[in-house]
UniProtKB/TrEMBL annotation:
Entry keywords, A to Z: Flavoprotein, FMN, NADP, Oxidoreductase
Lineage: Bacteria, Pseudomonadati, Pseudomonadota, Acidithiobacillia, Acidithiobacillales
Protein name from the UniProt record: Oxygen-insensitive NADPH nitroreductase
GO MF: FMN reductase (NADPH) activity
A Pfam family the protein falls into: Nitroreductase
EC number, as in UniProt: 1.5.1.38
Organism: Acidithiobacillus ferridurans
Keyword Flavoprotein found: yes
Length: 245
């Protein structure tokens, strides 16, 4: 165990922030840390928009489920998968940009996730709280219009940064036996491990510091993945010129 291990194992989403502002230079340094994440073939297909205009941020919050912490966080970033930059590079190099490739879409989306996680680790190492906002994909076209995103760019998620005003319970994770396999995929983990985890999650949900409920992991996953989720995304991505073949 070292400080980095402890930091990573202590991650929790923060949804209440103090009024303390975050210095511009600090946000820039956090984003620089994101730039040093691994990038497939060094494409660097991530663009980050820091939303400093209060009205614009409020509009994004509205389209992202009216989550107040989008408005109140010390800083709010929108992470975009960006193949528009690459298309321009191809054009200037005299090469045709091949649009719509699923592999390119995966490369860009994974780049964004790695970039953002570096930012989260950097921010939390400084005592800041973070919260990903996947709900920007609730209304991706409206948010893309607000942010004037060109074709070949889409908002993957937002990220709140700020000084924490809460210390929520640490959410338990699945037992390692469930997620770590050796050599081949198998389902040999003891079913009791999931049952034990469900019991831990039920305890967590019943006693956490906000929106308590009587539920458990299996129930939550079945409720989420047992229904359609943002079916508009496929048409939206194809309209952006992405993920069509």
């Amino acid at each position: 165990m070292n400080e980095t291990f402890a930091l990573l194992k202590n991650h929790r989403s923060i949804r209440q922030f103090t009024d303390q502002p975050i210095e511009v230079a600090l946000v820039q340094d956090i984003v620089r840390c994101g730039q040093h994440a691994a990038s497939s073939s060094n494409v660097q297909a991530c663009t980050v928009l820091q939303i400093t205009d209060a009205d614009l941020r409020s509009q994004i919050a509205h389209w992202a489920g009216d989550q107040d912490y989008v408005r109140s966080a010390g800083a709010f970033l929108v992470f975009c998968a960006d193949l528009h930059r690459s298309s321009g590079i191809c054009h200037r190099a005299g090469t045709e940009f091949v649009a719509g490739m699923t592999e390119h879409f995966i490369i860009a989306t994974v780049d964004v996730a790695l970039f953002a996680q570096n930012c989260v680790i950097a921010a939390e190492s400084l005592g800041l709280g973070t919260c990903y906002i996947g709900a920007v994909r609730n209304h991706p076209q409206e948010i893309s219009t607000l942010l004037e995103l060109p074709d070949q760019v889409y908002p993957v998620f937002g990220l709140c940064l700020g000084y924490p005003k809460q210390h929520p319970n640490l959410k338990p994770r699945l037992p390692l036996s469930v997620v770590l396999k050796e050599n081949r995929y198998n389902e040999t983990a003891d079913p009791g491990d999931i049952a034990h985890y469900d019991a831990r999650m039920n305890e967590y949900y019943l006693h956490r510091s906000f929106t308590r409920k009587d539920s458990h992991w299996t129930q939550e996953v079945a409720g989420l993945l047992g229904r359609e989720a943002r079916p508009h995304m496929r048409a939206f991505l194809q309209q952006r010129g992405m993920n069509s073949r």
